[in-house]
Amino acid sequence: MYHISVMPSESSQYLVNNENGLYVDCTFGGGGHSLYLLKKHKNIKIIAFDWDSDAFARFQETQKLFDGRLTFIKDNFKNIKAALAAINVKKVDGILADVGVSSKQFDDMDRGFSFNSKVLDMRMDVSNPLTAKEVINSFSQDELADIFYRYGQEYRSRQIAQAIYERRKRGVINTALELQDIIRSVKRPEGKINPATKVFQALRIFVNKELENLEGLLTDACEVLSFGGRIVIISFHSLEDSIVKKNFKENSANGIYKILTKKVVIASDEEMRGNPRSRSAKIRAAERV
């Protein structure tokens, strides 16, 4: 199981403005959002993007239920404009992106996202040549510190980078578990939060160019949305949310978007109790005008 999709009802509420429209699910994953939308809105069609090969297997199972209403493109959503043009689609009625990492990716010990993984990979697309292991073992101490601070907002970034640099003198750091132990030697736990959390977040974002990909999606989205079409972004930390907020604000000021969410939409108390992952999720939505 990939994970329980976050705020599917709220996503649908803000996304679907045309009951016969064509929509893009930029982050298909386990298909949860697409499945919800296709069941709820009987006449819409969805083009699903994902760059994770595991997602395609899930798509093959899901598409059988919907008789041609679901199409899959194995690509990064930053390429949305070119990828849609390649299948002769110029405009769509809505774009949905859940930019968090799936629980399946975290739980798969061969992917290296977990603190206790025996590998150090963190690639969402396994064809990506850059792994977290390469970053940790070959980047300079200053480069590591900058990554940890910029992408993880880690206040002990310099000390952690120094500890990694010193540990590298004794040999290659091969596993996520080893990296976690190094971080724990520098930084104590804060409550229930693992002290390696921010560094692991930073590595994952850097390796997969998550912020750059999100910016690419937002740049092209306004060009592929039909007038009246909507864009809904679900983000999970402040770096992503600030990028979305800034883009929507600028496009609103330029008369391109009407912002539908004056404040971020968060999950209900009931959903948070049933799906802890939803606690950090934020929805922002806008409409093309």
UniProtKB/TrEMBL annotation:
S-adenosyl-L-methionine binds at G31, G32, H33, D50, F77, D98, Q105. One of its GO terms (molecular function) is rRNA (cytosine-N4-)-methyltransferase activity. GO terms for biological process: rRNA base methylation. CDD domains: AdoMet_MTases. Keywords: Cytoplasm, Methyltransferase, rRNA processing, S-adenosyl-L-methionine, Transferase. GO terms for cellular component: cytoplasm. Transmembrane segments: none annotated. Signal peptide: none annotated. Its EC number is 2.1.1.199. It is found in: Cytoplasm. It catalyses: cytidine(1402) in 16S rRNA + S-adenosyl-L-methionine = N(4)-methylcytidine(1402) in 16S rRNA + S-adenosyl-L-homocysteine + H(+). Pfam families: Methyltransf_5. The keyword GTP-binding does not apply. Belongs to the methyltransferase superfamily. RsmH family. Specifically methylates the N4 position of cytidine in position 1402 (C1402) of 16S rRNA. This is Ribosomal RNA small subunit methyltransferase H. It comes from Endomicrobium proavitum.
